[in-house]
Specification:
Layout: H1 2-18, H2 23-75, H3 101-126
Length: 132
Amino acid sequence: MGRIRWIAGAGLAALAAAGGASAQDTLPELRALNAAQQGAEIARQDALAAQREITARQDQLQTALVLRELDAARTAPPGSNGLIIPPPAPAPPPASGPESFQGQMDRLERLTQDALARSNARVLAVRPASDR
């Protein structure tokens, strides 16, 4: 608001200084003054945009640093000085045969299919012949 008042005041002062000059003579001066003020405002907005960009980059770097520290703390507990205990070696797979995982899965599949066949036979036996 103060800037608009200043512009209006400057315009009135220019009109008063011109005295007997017509409004046509002061119009180019007012346009030049407005163009200069607009250029200054554009420069100010550009500076603010650059400052916001710098702040955003700093925030990104700070966030990346915090995430890196959290990830390091997750993989290496505090006080371990980066020493990581390797996980135990996986147990060898059981031998193939009826006690193996695949053998147990095959047996479970057979039992499931047998139970399904018995259930279907019961449903067919109970249902009237007209529904078949």
